[in-house]
Queue: 2 jobs
Job 1
Amino acid sequence: MIIYLNGEFVPKEKAVVSVFDHGLLYGDGVFEGIRAYYGRVFKLGEHLDRLYEGAQALCLKIPCSKDEMREIVLETLRRNKLRDAYIRLVVTRGPGDLGLDPKKCHRAFVFCITASIVLYPDELYEKGMSVISVSTRRNIPTACIPRVKSLNYLNNIYAKMEANLAGMPEAIMLNNEGYVAEATGDNIFIVKNGVLITPPSSAGILEGITRNAVMDLAREKGIAVVEKLFTMFDVYTADEVFFTGTAAEVIPCINVDGRIIGDGVPGEMTRELITAFHELTKADGPFIYPGGSA
Ligand code: PXG
């Protein structure tokens, strides 16, 4: 496995980061999880836009242009001869001293890993998953901005731990006002009377690339899509519930806090959107190899 590490391509064993890096010491940095399907990098432009916007919000200067970063991602895939992959692109604040002050860090550190991802078992996509809502609230935007995909994931990890302790694969997190925000690493959608509903960005969520792609697909199909605040009552009484994320893609949810959702099987709109999403992954993003094949 070859890793892009701050200007070089190195074998996995040599891909190491300083213990003085503020990404490690303070979770100071931003990252993206990206997928390649069929020799193309899905929504690469959108992922790079989010990475650079997050860095802008953190006053973190990424030491290369967006075009150069795009090339770094594609070249890392080529060096590993991959066509289908999970890509982890990380920009840390870089090495500094033991104080938290970012101005002591003189250069951001960039690395890119291309590997595979362990998805939920196929069975969960076919039968749907059971989840719970947890007591850990999503970070409030005035403290730690959820729209920034930062290296500080403790908020989500606390919620995931609650799910783990309850023997559940995923958790629904509410915001500090008690409205539904998102899952620990996925966005949430509900379907009610044929309308597709998801929390707005102002609910304090990460605006998922998969979320936006699914909303576009639904609109193309003539489905009404609404971004609005809702509560767990709306989840319990929804006709369908599903999650979206780069790793999870689109995954149906058929039981929440013990309440059976709809008929207790993945709903029609969810299944339709899963199919449409799979089709889209064949047709989006820059080709990794010239001529479109490896
Ligand atoms: N919300 C949060 C909090 C996320 O971390 C999403 C939504 C979905 O966004 P995209 O752009 O991927 O559609 C994410 C993405 C994991 C894992 O191991 C998940 C993410 C990142 C890294 C690892 O499940 N989440």
Note: The mean pLDDT is 97.
Job 2
Amino acid sequence: MAAAVLDQLNSADASLLDSERPAEAARQNLIGLSLTELTRWVVDHGEKAFRARQLYRWIHQRGEAEFDAMTDLALSLRALLNERAMLGTSPVTLDHTSQDGTRKWLLDVGQGNAVEMVFIPETNRGTLCISTQAGCAVNCRFCSTGKQGFARNLSAAEVIGQLWHARRALVGPSAGINLNVDRAITNVVFMGMGEPLQNYTATLAALRVMLDDDAYGLSRRRVTVSTSGVVPMMDRLREDCPTALAVSLHAPTDELRDELVPLNRKYPLRELMAACQRYLERSPRDFITFEYCMLDGVNDSDLQARQLVELVREVPCKFNLIPFNPFPGSGLKKSSRERISAFAQILIDAGIVTTVRKTRGDDIDAACGQLAGEVQDRTRLAERQPVLAPIRLVGRI
Ligand code: SAH
Ligand code: SF4
């Protein structure tokens, strides 16, 4: 992960002569480093190893941005940090709070790319929804991120920097971890832009910092990785750092899922269900959350609900039905409220806990899964697919 940050810095610097190199570029961004990497950096710079933990706590537990404010670090170390290190996060270009308290930030990640993050306060918890890529290569049929094409992976610093920034914005720097429960981040979901398991290195690095008691100390059960079903990486996550897992299902048959989630052609439903079962052997939760975007006349019939019950028979799970969040040119419509209720009831009658996602932050366009509508279409995907072809109706009754 440090390698990713360094790679980025190195490649950004490659075209510059030493005399032209801005001072910033020579500095190491410490935000995305694990404690082990930070320790290596500190030792490499002639300091005692234990200083790294102090520094790490200042950065993440206390959200401090200024090295000079880290009062228990020796003055010489603070001077070194000012000269050779920095705490760099992506600039915020937009910060909006909706009437229901949902807050959305748009972050500039360079070269015309932006990603979003959203904070959703609820009575007993606060959930931060973060992004892992600018755009997404999976190109799901109903997803505006997918329609923008894939620009690039975010670095570990850019992913963890989202939590660092949001926490400072919500509870203030040096606030400690348990203050102001109303505004505290208790949960993180990887449900913003991008497919986290197609940016595995940065996702794993960020997860480790989030879970670390010396940093954010979040519980594994309260950090949810959401995936469109990258089967081999689900197995890797299960080994490396199992957290709660959400799988974006959206269809009960391969025929329909091939169209809605193109990755299904590579990892079809039978393999996906088997991967879910394997994941559960190590998961901190004893169920998988299946997300299911409700598309009018496409995947919302009674028959399809019954097919779903069959499909997931061997997988302890909950369902989260997400009313489709429309965007221009999608050619798709949201299922009616009655249809969603009838669909949910079939799952509930089969003993599956099912919730319908409330739409939050509507007035600021901040519902998860419908982010960054304003962002550039980097790969001109929309131009290449000007009008989306109608989806064949499968299994309608
Ligand atoms: N790439 C990951 C995580 C990001 S998307 C994934 O696909 O799981 C988070 C959730 O929002 C996914 O379940 C996704 O399918 C859903 N989603 C995407 N676009 C949506 C839309 N327009 N309306 C409703 N849900 C959407
Ligand atoms: Fe990518 Fe997820 Fe959108 Fe599919 S739903 S295109 S995987 S961000």
Note: The pocket of S-adenosyl-L-homocysteine (ligand 1) is lined by residues 140, 142-144, 191, 195, 226-228, 248, 291, 293, 322, 324-325, 368-370 (CB under 6 Å).
